[in-house]
Design a protein that fits this description.
This protein is an alpha+beta fold and 264 residues long. It folds into two domains: 101 residues, Immunoglobulin-like, CATH 2.60.40.2250; 153 residues, C8orf32 fold. It has five helices and 16 strands. It has a five-stranded antiparallel sheet, with no helix packed on it. A five-stranded antiparallel sheet has the order 7-13-12-10-14. A four-stranded antiparallel sheet has the order 4-5-2-15, with no helix packed on it. Helix 2 crosses helix 4. It is globular and about 60 Å long.
């Protein structure tokens, strides 16, 4: 499938910005199931200071704001060809060791809720158990926008039984790690069936299974990623893989508007 993607993030400030530095994960890389034919990343109100591949294997850019600006815009546009691999990506690669993805993070620490979730899984092969886990989380944690935020942990979302794709991914990751499997967070894009216009990127999880390597699980949609998915970045949780993260100095307040289009 050939996908055309446009992703615009516009930051506005109530007063002139003294200093700002953003870390961008807005450039997908070639990999299993995806080939990047063209990709452009444009800056307005900021300039690129550095480009590198981080320890998770993500294309990473650092951009600094021009002093005194009141608006910064990042615009990513590209053309990607995808194929379905049933969510299977193969063996682990990258600078980060596999054991790192078995360690907890603040957003994926397991507790009593994760323990109860695992207790309801049947004894079966790893792949079957992960599909069971995906279905179980989807049934217990309804998709509802506005009930969580970027700081909500897996346990908190599980206990309140609501959240979005980010929360579904964190719960899956926490449970997979608690059962002894490496797991990681994935940010990216999904071509939806009913609309090409979106207000946020998508997120799902991957678990590393014997004989298969990394396998993707999208709890929010109850499937393993197919040709409609494009991977942007991975990490231990949202904080590692989020499309844009940054710091700023000055008294101004910040507002953000995001526009994403994914179409065939």
């Amino acid at each position: 499938m050939r996908l055309k993607i446009s992703h615009t993030s516009e930051y506005r400030y109530s007063q002139s910005l003294h200093y700002g530095l953003q870390r961008l994960h807005l450039v997908p890389r070639n990999g299993p199931g995806q080939t990047v034919h063209s990709w452009q990343l444009e800056y307005k109100g900021a300039r690129e200071e550095a480009q590198y591949v981080d320890h998770f294997g993500n294309d990473t850019r650092l951009a600094s704001a021009y002093p005194g600006v009141e608006k910064i815009v990042f615009n990513a546009v590209g053309d990607i060809e995808t194929t379905s691999n049933e969510g299977i990506l193969g063996g682990h690669k990258g600078y980060a060791p596999l054991w790192l993805f078995q360690t907890e993070s603040k957003l994926t620490t397991s507790g009593s809720g994760i323990d109860k979730l695992l207790a309801d899984l049947s004894e079966s092969a790893e792949l079957d158990r992960m599909h069971q886990l995906m279905s179980l989380i989807g049934a217990r944690v309804r998709y509802e926008v506005g009930t969580t935020d970027v700081a909500t942990s897996a346990e908190a979302a599980l206990q309140q039984e609501s959240g979005v794709c980010q929360d579904h991914a964190h719960i899956f990751i926490a449970a997979a790690r608690a059962s002894g499997l490496p797991a990681r967070y994935v940010s990216g894009y999904l071509m939806m069936d009913d609309t090409s216009e979106q207000v946020a990127s998508h997120a799902w999880a991957e678990a590393h299974l014997d004989g298969l390597g990394w396998v993707g699980f999208d709890v929010s949609n109850g499937i393993s990623p197919d040709e409609r998915y494009v991977r942007l970045a991975t990490g231990k949780d949202y904080n590692d893989a989020m499309p844009i993260a940054g710091i700023r100095f000055g008294p101004s307040e910040e507002s953000l508007a995001v526009h994403i289009s994914v179409e065939q």
